[in-house]
Amino acid sequence: MLLSALTVTFTALVTVHAPPAHATTGCTVTAWGTQSGASAMVPSRLTDVVQVAAGVGHGLALKSDGTVVAWGDTDDVPALPSGLTDVVQVAAGVGHGLALKSDGTVVAWGSNAQDQTAVPSDLTDVVRVAAGSYHSLALKSDGTVVAWGFNASGQATVPSGLTDVVQVAAGHAHSLALKSDGTVVAWGSNAQDQTAVPSGLTDVVQVAGGSNHSLAVTSDGTVVAWGYPNDSIDVPSGLTDVVQVAAGTLHSLALKSDGTVVAWGHHSYGQTAVPSGLTGVIQIDSQSTHSVALSCRSEVEFQHPAMTVAEETATIQLPVTRTGTAAATTVDYAVTGGSAVAGSDFTFTPGTLRFAPGESTKTIALAIRNDATPEAAETIRITLSSPSSGSDLGSAASMTVTITASDHPVGFARTTLTVAENASTLRLPVIRTGAAAATTVDYAVTGGSAVAGSDFTFTPGTLRFAPGESTKTIALAIRNDATPEAAETIRITLSSPSSGSDLGSAASMTVTITASDQQPDALISSGGGYVGNNIYNTTAAAQSKTTAVRWSWKGATRSFSVRIYNDGNAPAVIALKGSRASSGSAIGYYAGSTNVTAALQSASGWRVSVAPRSYRLIRIQLHVAPGVRAGTRSAAVSGTWVGDGSRVDLVKAAVTVTR
Q1: Are strands 398-403 and 306-309 parallel, antiparallel or unpaired?
Q2: Where are any strands of DSSP class E within 150-280?
Q3: pTM for the complete prediction?
Q4: pLDDT, tens only, 533-546
Q5: Residue 53 phi/psi, 5° resolution?
């Protein structure tokens, strides 16, 4: 009936941390149906939302900064606790709310008539919460479940020996647990068969509980339902590609992989009337008679609406960017106009760009053909079209590339160049045609934000082309200091060509020195804060956090959080790498609810963008195999800034098996 888990894979042992800021751009909360006015009271201008929860008569939204917003009927909205921050997941009941904090503790508020907000004093290491009408559930990192609140039907009595749980869900008076082997355990009221899990149900990846019915999503994207009433469990024929379900009192919802929502069941309050055009949905929830969805539309466009290049540029990459990166997006591209002739002036293959979830930039290749024919400036117009569902075209849906007048002027080979601060000395090519006679041209720095002497050294002068010589270079030395700096520019301009020569359109060139000397600061936690700070290792021993377990034939699982912090004053791309499992153990790496093990263990690592003074959380799940011999099994995560520095921070999480 209330909060359904956000994940659709077996990763619920990982704390559901807020997605990166870019994933929230353009996200919108939409509600429909009615329950004491809750659907009509979603606050206007509600932005930066990363998760929503539906309660009876009220709703909750978790923002990317870890704060919570509530709305609904005045009589139904429990007042939020003062100073509530660092929240990573929320859940809502009839008159109470739950918030899971980044340190693994739980905050509850609202009605406590049935002890539903009486969080056990020793409750820690929580990775997921769920709220029933009058009871509450918490999933711990060790795969066990804790429950409290109204227990008239046994809904708050966790079955003895229940372990290996990866997700919990709560209905009106019953509870559900999804285990790591894909099976489901249910307890509490069975008056309408809502806890009668179908025999043979396996391969489940997510569950949800309604008033008197239950839902499960299987790994093949289909939905299984049981309980009452029939219209709420009559799954629509042919419903596939489902990644999440939610359940209300008499209705059900399914979120498909394409970002659309399907609803069925009772309709007297409009709770199954999914708004027309609702796409780009990344999460759903439902309660008594209303439904809520979080949708994040993408906007795709060229990074630059225009670009000027020389004929000698060869192949250039045209950046296409998008906002709202939570879901996958596709967009087509093709040449739609211009004066340049395909085949003789350029070569280009139309196609489709495919953005993976979280991916914000792709490039399109355009090859400029350098012939020997003197030509005037020519243009190529490339246009984006047909964005996939949940995406829109931005204002820069077309881009014009101008090929400068060629084969007679003097000019830079390219007008822009981006380098790292450790680029050392650059040689900037200047080209000319009509090379029969000698030619001279002056050059100097004429602008930019970089400071001569501290950021670069440059000597103005004159290039002298000998007869027949077509290319010369200008030296620019980039100075690599240790000061964290934002991106800086240097503008170099050609002037005063000698008699018989002209300046081409590429008479100036801008060199951009990327943001430099950012430093990844990796901290490690095991449920009790973080250790290690401002320690950058290249050869030194890693920071470490170790926990001990006694030998057991069942094995053991421990979770550690690593916080990768950008100490600099400009955005930084940090390459994260994780070690592989040592003998007798298994390792999983997670970012929020996403399994990033393969990415962290790849040759290039997993590259993430981190804003200034911000961080990303990586959770290490270290599993010691059953019956393994005494000893230490460890996992190491390193963060390296992708740029001019070699700053590396290495942290290690270890589990020691003792006899």
Answers
A1: parallel
A2: 165-170, 174-179, 184-188, 204-209, 213-218, 223-227, 242-247, 251-256, 261-265
A3: 0.53
A4: 555 544 456 778 88
A5: -140, 140
